[in-house]
Amino acid sequence: MKEQLNSLEQQQIDLRNEIKELRAEESSLEQSKQALYKSANDENTANDRIRSRIEIIRKDEQEENRRHQDTQNKIINLQQEQERLLNDKQPTFAPLEILEPQLSALAQQIEELERVIEEKEKAKITLSNAQTAMISASKAQYYFTACKSLAEALGAKGIQGELVKGVLGPIEDSINENLQLMGIHFPMFFSTESETGKEVFQFGWIKNDRKTNFDVLSTGEKLMFLSAFLVTLLERSNPPLKILALDDINNLDKKNLGGVLRGLNALSHKLDNILIAGVVEISEAEGWTIWDLTPEGAAVRG
């Protein structure tokens, strides 16, 4: 029994060795196969390059043959032209003593014709200038009349005025609403024509039945009016983030500053945020967060 086991183990060892040798031989054959494939690919690549070069040489040869044939054809044509010229009879000319008087007469005729042409050209230019002047004067009159009519049609009394009224009408209502929220009950106005009929663009508000232009309002009133105006524009443009930023409120006294803050606070529900910057003395205001940006204030926040 033991001898049989030993015999089987030996056979197993022999088989494993044989398998190892076969695998080594297989690996060697695979390497040889890959080397053959690579060699074949390299030869194919080299053959492709050679074929491409041969094709280029053939095309160059064909082009050279074509140029050579063109040259030969040109030589033949030139030779034929040379033969034709040599075979043609030379023209005969009259004696010079007969031709010279004729040449002199022709020269005089040419001078006379040139003089006549020059005079006619001057007359033509004079007539053309006169016609141009008449046309220019007529066009200028037409242009003046047309421009005057267009100015009247497009001006404050015409299309432009109607367009301004149509566009600014809804804005005017919205600005009045904002002014009322801010505690200002003076209706605003837009004007495109002065009392004398001139074209203008003015705006402001009506106080005591009298129009007050924006440029004569006080600093605080201007700030309130502009705030109502800008909030209206933000509402109409409807950006993703509605922020009203005002700067340089240093010229407002304490009373006007408080009025502006209260008025803006009344519009805060229409905006995402309102930022005001200026050098003012204020420690608190209802509905507002105050940031002291002086070095002392920065030290306190730090």
Please tell me what the overall shape is. Answer: flat
Radius of gyration: 52 Å
Q: Give me the oligomer status.
A: single chain
Question: Mean of residue pLDDT?
Answer: 76
**Helix content range:** 55-70%
| Distance separating the two termini | 95 Å
Which series of helices and strands comes N to C? HHHEEEHEHEH
Strand content: 5-15%
Write a concise synopsis of the structure shown.
With 302 residues, the chain is mainly α.
Summarize the topology.
Blueprint: H1 2-87, H2 96-154, H3 159-181, E1 188-193, E2 199-207, E3 210-213, H4 219-237, E4 243-246, H5 254-266, E5 273-276, H6 295-301
Parallel strand pairs: 4-5
Antiparallel strand pairs: 1-2, 2-3
Task: Please tell me about this protein's structure.
69% of the residues lie in helices and 9% in strands. A hairpin with a 2-residue loop joins strand 2 and strand 3 (210-213). It has helices spanning 2-87, 96-154, 159-181, 219-237, 254-266, 295-301, and strands spanning 188-193, 199-207, 210-213, 243-246, 273-276. The longest helix has 86 residues, at 2-87. It starts with a helix and ends with a helix. Helix 3 packs across helix 4 and helix 4 (219-237) runs parallel beside helix 5 (254-266). It is mainly alpha-helical and 302 residues long.
